[in-house]
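debug: dumping io for the single-chain case to check the tokenizer round-trip. Nothing else runs in this session.
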Amino acid sequence: MDSAAPRISVVVALLNRRETLARCLDSVLAQTWTARELILIDGGSTDGSLDIVRARAGAIAHWESAPDRGLYHAFNKALARATGDWIYFLGADDWLLENSVFSRIAPHLAKALPRYRVVYAQANFVTASGEVLETMGAPWAASRERFLQGFMIPHQATFHHRSLFEERGGFDEGFRMGGDYELLLRELPSRAPLFVPGIVVAGYQFGGASSAPANTLEVLRVVRRAQEKNGVRPGMLWYAAVARALIRITLWRVVGERAAKRLLDWGRALMGKPAFWTRI
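debug: decoded output
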């Protein structure tokens, strides 16, 4: 199936993302790698997002708009339409950083099988204005234990071979979030992914509701549910993450969001890390 020119299917699922959608879609359509297709699944947007889609409809392999059962239902609908050797999921708030990203990653995809069915590189955490907060993605040897304890490899920099879905199945639609982690938890403990250093694939917009401590705690609950489904026991890294989330929740409530963020970044500074929370 793979060749020197692996075909990449890009999946974008959205609901009411008019403010960021054009940036996302145009970053895909501008790719110099021509062996690609764009599949867009809209959950019934009413904010003008579909006007942006219709303006680019001639360059989109497939798009549809109808109410769905959530993100992972949308992903599964897209998988039924995808014709590529490799599947890449891009958030509607996110974008490919360079026009040559697919051209740079494609040679690694072409050589990945049969050993690897998941290939990942790096992605940037960015603010709404595009300021880089942190670059995510490290070699698998340094990431495996963290992954098992709920620290996802960068979804916005991960490519999935279609045989992964043929063997492991699609996304579990019972997950409202964390379904991408649960899917990879079926594969990666027994079959390692390939890490490609030096390629930053996408910008992942972080902030707002996604940065709220209560949401972090909910993500950790979902992680535990995915672990239980796949027979993975929690370890110290997971419990430490829960403790940090509870500390953040307490700080938010006691001193307020602004002061809490300053305190958290003060703690990061003590550990030699750059400011993060006060920048979002």
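debug: round-trip ok. The mean pLDDT is 93.
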